[in-house]
Specification:
The complex is a heterodimer of chains A (about 80) and B (about 550).
Chain A (H helix, E strand, L loop, with lengths): L6 H12 L8 H5 L4 H4 L11 H24 L6
Chain B lengths: L4 H20 L12 H4 L8 H12 L2 H14 L6 H26 L4 H9 L2 H32 L7 H22 L2 H29 L2 H14 L14 H17 L1 H8 L4 H10 L1 H19 L18 H9 L2 H39 L5 H25 L2 H15 L3 H4 L10 H21 L14 E3 L10 E3 H22 L26 H10 L4
Helix pairs in contact in B: 1-8, 1-9, 1-16, 3-9, 3-12, 3-13, 3-16, 4-7, 4-14, 4-16, 5-11, 5-13, 5-14, 6-7, 7-16, 7-17, 7-18, 8-17, 9-14, 9-16, 10-14, 12-16, 14-15, 15-16, 16-17, 20-21
The chains are: A mainly alpha (about 80), B mainly alpha (about 550).
């Protein structure tokens, strides 16, 4: 089947691709950094940083790890 | 002024170097024909991973951010750190949402979010509202970039007596910026962003290693800040959040993230990338800037530990908190390195200012000029109108700073964040669903705008004596709740917007009012580079002429 012609099958196929369940993981780095109960405290300190600061900086790593994982798991294989 | 001579020389040298790059940029990855909005306004829609990283990074993390966030941390403590969760949350959102906008825009040749809204909801009026909101929200943001440069110039002692003398350096800087943006379009900020970000990374790496060493270590820095806030009478400050400002912290971070990716300049940066992979990979790589921003925010505490006293502000008795970081550099670094740091901030202002003026110009051209003034405009005419509009926008921004109190621009920027959020239902949700009725979206937009403006108007700050527009933290007690908690205005306004849009949609659907025709198809939202149906320029123009007018 050549690439673009019939509307319906193309739609169904790309839908399946974009609506990967892996995308749900992206809600973790959206929700976790927005729960102050997790990080709004002084102790324990790490290299002199209160928890409020080092833990929120650590969420950056959480964000990077999640987006990287989702990207790797949802990227198109073999058709480009 | 003599005392700052080395700093001024280093600053000027780097500034001129970058300006030269801006002019050369027109030849960089040169197209066959620059007279097309895709070329001038979107850099040929062909930027790869690295360029996009520098461009979007240079775009989102502006000079104002680098100056204002540590100033906020210096003044209020933990609350200012909202910039960190804010810039973490935004990337998964972009990953999910803007990839769809990229695809549909590439297939249909959309240059602005309003182009998309017009065709999705078959409503030029809704598109016009989105375009005007975008332009209004972007203008003060450009003006604020000047505030960033001004903080640096002030610290270097480059200030005169009269209005004109005081602002002459900024006027010259913006004239140069306007000239090379006019000539090179989006390629100029893309090329300059390499220098800007490299300088910023160097400065910050040095700052976070060298300054704690000089100031007695991170523990002492946090303790000094803690002592300052404990001694201050203000209730909301401290190195941790208190029970009353946690909701504000969370809603401000989330609301700002939603607003940031709706801003026309972020969308311009994303649309300029070559394919979906570039965007997705960048969402994993861009948080490197968030780390940088988090560390920059802590410069506010270093300034406390170093005993920095901010310079006086524009009005008698006030202080200009934005001078905190430049003063810290001036005090702690050797002159030549302080000059490099100032250049990083100054050049840091140019990249976003250029992209913002391009984005605002594109909105005007596509959604006002072409829609209402000259429907049969050719691609070359569009590019030309955009170039001229970008000049007008910058003159407006400079005029704002020269003739009005800079505080006015800061207030407008605050309002800008709230109003750009009101395009969320049409632009962001519109990428997922066409359930909302076009008329309901317009009503929701109006309700959200009214609610946001009213709430901002109500906010007073007894400490500074401002009665209105004194911040974005709205006390919930105004709604009749018995509490001291505050919430970010933008979130409430956009919720009102959504509720109105949803209710009215139900009514209009029940009354069987026509919702217009969707000009996009479901698979448009997944199209990628090399897609056979991506419409080439000439055909696209013919296509849009055929569309029915609603």
């Amino acid at each position: 089947m050549a690439a673009p012609e019939p509307e319906a099958p193309t739609t169904a196929r790309s839908r399946a691709k974009d609506h990967s369940p892996w995308n749900w993981l992206l809600f973790i780095p959206i929700v976790v950094p927005l729960i102050p109960a997790l990080f709004n405290a002084d102790s324990p300190r790490l290299f002199g940083f209160p928890r409020f600061y080092w833990l929120q900086l650590a969420w950056i790593i959480l964000g990077v790890a999640t987006t990287t994982l989702v990207y790797q798991m949802t990227k198109k294989r073999g058709d480009r | 002024m003599r005392a700052h001579l080395t700093e001024i020389i280093v600053f000027t040298f780097l500034f001129l170097l970058v300006s030269a790059m801006g002019f050369v940029a027109a030849r960089w990855r040169a197209p066959r024909d620059m007279a097309h909005l895709d070329e001038w306004g979107l850099g040929g829609r062909n930027f790869g991973g690295w360029i996009t990283w520098f461009l979007v990074g240079g775009d989102l993390y502006t000079a104002y951010t680098f100056v204002a966030v540590p100033a906020l941390v210096f003044g209020a403590g933990a609350m200012g750190f909202f910039a960190v969760p804010y810039t973490i949350v935004i990337y998964p959102l972009v990953f999910l949402v803007l990839c769809r906008l990229w695809s549909v825009s590439h297939r249909h040749g959309y240059v602005t979010p309003a182009d998309f809204v017009r065709n999705r909801f078959d409503s030029p009026i809704l598109a016009l509202l989105v375009a005007i909101t975008g332009i209004l929200a972007t203008m003060p943001y450009i003006a604020l970039q000047l505030v960033g440069i001004e903080a640096v110039l002030k610290t270097m002692g480059v200030t005169g007596e009269s209005t004109i003398a005081r602002h002459l350096p900024i006027i010259i800087a913006f004239a140069i910026l306007a000239a090379y943006t006019y000539q090179s379009g989006l390629r100029a900020p893309a090329l300059i962003a390499f220098v800007k970000d490299s300088l910023i990374y160097i400065v910050i790496l040095v700052a976070i290693i060298y300054l704690p060493y000089k100031l007695g270590g991170w523990g002492d820095i946090f303790n000094a800040a803690d002592a300052k806030f404990k001694a201050s009478p203000a209730p909301g400050d401290g190195i941790l959040l208190n029970a009353n400002n946690q909701l504000q912290y969370v809603t401000l971070a989330f609301g700002s993230a939603l607003a940031l990716f709706l801003y026309p300049h972020s969308i311009t940066g994303v649309l300029a990338s070559r394919n979906r992979d570039v965007i997705k990979r960048n969402m994993s790589a861009l948080p490197a800037y968030s780390l940088l921003l988090g560390l920059i925010a802590l410069l506010g505490y270093m300034a406390i530990a170093a005993g920095v006293k901010p310079l006086p502000g524009a009005t008698q008795g006030s202080v200009d908190g934005n001078t905190v970081v430049p003063l810290l550099f001036d005090q702690q670094f050797p002159d030549w390195f302080a000059g490099v740091a100032y250049a990083a901030i100054g050049i840091g202002a140019l990249v976003p200012a250029a992209i913002m003026s391009i984005a605002a110009a594109n909105l005007f051209t596509r959604n006002i000029y072409k829609e209402y003034l000259k429907r049969d405009a050719t691609a070359a005419q569009e590019a030309n109108v955009s170039k001229i509009t970008s000049l007008v926008v910058k003159v407006g921004a400079v005029a704002c700073i020269v003739f009005l109190d800079p505080q006015f621009s800061i207030d407008l920027q605050l309002i800008g964040g709230v109003i750009i959020l009101q395009t969320l239902p049409a632009v962001a949700l519109g990428l997922y669903t066409r359930w909302f009725h076009r008329t309901a979206l317009i009503a929701g937009w109006a309700a959200g705008m009214a609610m946001g403006m009213w709430m901002l108007y109500q906010i007073a700050n007894p400490a500074t004596g401002k009665k209105h527009f004194a911040g974005s933290a709205f006390p919930l007690s105004e709604f009749g709740f018995d509490t001291k908690k505050t919430i970010y205005v933008g979130i409430v306004a956009v919720l009102v917007n959504l509720v109105v849009a949803a209710l009215l949609t139900l009514v209009l659907r029940a009354a069987k009012v026509s919702g217009g025709v969707d000009h996009t198809t479901p698979d448009d939202y997944f199209a990628d580079e090399g897609d056979p149906r991506v419409v080439p320029g000439a055909e696209r123009d013919a296509d849009s002429a055929r569309e029915p007018v609603a």
